[in-house]
Design brief:
Glucose Oxidase, domain 1, 2 domains, single chain, 38% helix, alpha/beta
């Protein structure tokens, strides 16, 4: 816990508003609603990622007002501000998707800038889409001021159990002649019924669950529908929680221990979460100054089973998990089995074990979360692979339903668009290993997600007949035999850059390897002949990102020390 000398509840704001010399600051603040009494209160920034850019975030400004009211009622002075978001689901499959991962850094940087510049004593950050949640958490870690994260909540499912992935897979169904264009239109117009994040255990719900397990959000913040009284209450309670943290001098560095990150990895595995969690947890740990690596996912994954039968590879949606109790009962099960660290401090001011003390079991008869003695998979679905194709590591999402290994002939593409066309027009056939390269953090730039190709693969009925490897990444909605985050990436001269059509590639989740069937001498000769392509962009945000970004195996962060 923070030293007592650091526990002044107005540690930062007093430097901005106290004393004769700060009269100009007070004058500016009076214009935005401060009164004489407010200057003596701890100031709390309420960071909203709300916007009409995406249904995931369209309601967050309303939630921010509730968090603001809860803060003020608890004796603080709240100040609401906004930051950006971009929509993965809307930009997916287009050049705009290059900005998705980049937006994580923009969000973290912008929250850091506002909170540090304005001298806020605490922070409530509200996120509802894939990249703004880790972006919020990264800013919280960097600032190290009392803070609470609030998840905007999951969307309700559309008719016939539909969600956004249903639309992507229906596109592939049209190409395969299994779905008519009229049926596609019906899916398109019903899959997204209102506000909230994508409905399965995709990246948004995965990261919300991980952040709760980290201890940065209140109990069940990750398991509430966006349009619900429970979510409104969550926001109001966050105000009281952050004021308690300020008064007690509890900062994120007191919460974000190595053990807390292990808890987050554990819950991601147990719920069958997104491969993006690997990338984001590495980045969040970097900002928290915690040593977390790819090998930690392997170590933890060897003992933690997959228990959640949740989409994309399972049957159920987050709203159905909410109805049986959310993630708290599975956390309690894992804790009781010695698979989570109960001593970790949380934003309630209590330990994880104390928070879970009165949590009961799931109701009898439910089959959304399996018991420990009957898991969906005995170890992690997230396989960290090495081999001559990925000397620095790659991340595979293999549920076991696709099998545990795949060997086939390479079919190489230099962009996601080229690969998607080949899948839809029938060029890609059973037995192929689709290779999509120059889509990494530097080469993309931006490390696009591959939901359009994987959705098309499933829609065409090739989910267990082809594999896909890329130096890009996958949406949490992707499933099938997929390997992403291949490092070094093609743009950095990694072996993925020299694969040729027809080369045999073997992926084995048991031995944790991904290999190109070439001799060391031939692979070395190809690499010696390789020449780096010209950068795709030379000015602006993407160019700056490409110059600064680290490898995916290091979280794709932009402030890695040399």
């Amino acid at each position: 816990m923070a030293n007592q000398s650091d526990n002044d509840p107005r540690r930062y704001s007093r430097l901005v508003v106290d004393g004769l010399e700060q009269a100009p600051s007070r004058a500016m603040l009076r214009a935005v609603g401060f009164t004489d009494r407010d200057f003596s209160k701890p100031q709390v920034g309420i960071a909203s990622t709300g916007s009409m850019v995406t249904p995931c975030n369209m309601h967050l400004d309303d939630l921010a007002e509730l968090a603001s009211a809860g803060t003020d009622e608890a004796g603080g002075k709240s100040v609401v501000f906004n930051t950006i978001t971009v929509s993965d689901g809307i930009s997916m499959g287009t050049a705009g998707m290059r900005y998705s991962l980049v937006s994580r850094e923009v969000i973290a940087d912008s929250i850091e800038a506002v909170v540090a510049a304005e001298g806020f004593d605490g922070l409530i950050a509200i996120g509802g889409c894939d990249k703004n949640m880790p972006g919020c958490a990264m800013a919280i870690a960097r600032l190290d001021r009392p803070a609470v994260f609030v998840y905007g909540g999951t969307i309700q499912p559309g008719p016939k159990h539909r969600d956004i992935v249903s639309v992507f897979e229906a596109v592939g169904g049209v190409a395969a002649g299994k779905v008519s264009e009229e049926e596609l239109k019906e899916v398109e117009t019903t899959a997204i019924p209102g506000p909230g994040s994508c409905a399965g255990m995709y990246t948004a719900n995965t990261m919300a669950s991980a952040i709760e397990a980290l201890g940065l959000s209140l109990a069940n913040s990750s398991a509430q529908e966006a349009v619900s009284q429970a979510k409104k209450s969550d926001c109001e309670r966050a105000g009281a929680a952050v004021m308690n943290l300020i008064q007690r001098g509890i900062r994120p560095s007191d919460i974000l221990s190595r053990e807390a990150f292990e808890n987050a990895v554990t819950i991601v595995i147990a719920l069958g979460g997104s491969t993006n969690a690997v990338l984001h947890l590495l980045a969040m740990a970097h900002d928290a100054k915690i040593d977390l690596s790819l090998d930690d996912f392997t170590r933890i994954g060897a003992r933690v089973p997959v228990l959640g039968d949740l989409r994309p590879s399972g049957r159920y949606l987050m709203s159905e998990l909410i109805r049986i109790g959310g993630i708290q009962p599975v956390m309690k099960t894992l804790l009781d089995a010695g698979l989570m660290h109960g001593e970790c401090l949380t934003v309630t001011g209590k330990s994880l074990a104390e928070n879970l003390a009165d949590v009961g079991a799931y109701p009898d008869g439910q089959d959304i979360i399996r018991p420990l003695d009957n898991p969906i998979k005995a170890d992690s679905h997230l396989a960290i692979l090495y081999g001559n194709l990925a000397p620095d590591g790659a991340v595979a999402k293999i549920s076991g339903k696709e099998g545990t290994s795949f060997s086939g002939r390479a079919r190489v593409f230099h962009s996601e668009e080229d690969a998607l066309r080949a899948i839809l027009d029938g060029t890609v056939v059973a037995g192929d290993v689709i290779v999509i390269r120059y889509e990494g953090p530097r080469g993309g730039p931006g490390m696009r997600e591959m939901l359009s190709p994987t959705g098309a693969i499933i829609g065409r009925g090739l989910g267990d007949k082809v594999a896909l490897i890329t130096d890009g990444r996958f949406s949490g909605g992707s499933h099938g035999f997929v390997v992403g985050h291949v490092t070094p990436e093609a743009a950095a001269g990694g072996p993925i850059a020299v694969i040729e059509d027809g080369d045999r590639i073997t992926i084995d989740s048991i031995s944790k390897r991904v290999d190109l069937d070439l001799s060391e001498a031939e692979l070395g000769e190809r690499l010696r002949k390789w020449q780096a392509p010209e950068p795709k962009v030379t000015r602006g945000l993407l160019a700056k990102y490409a110059r600064l970004v680290s490898s995916a195996s290091q979280g794709a962060v932009t402030d890695l020390a040399d």
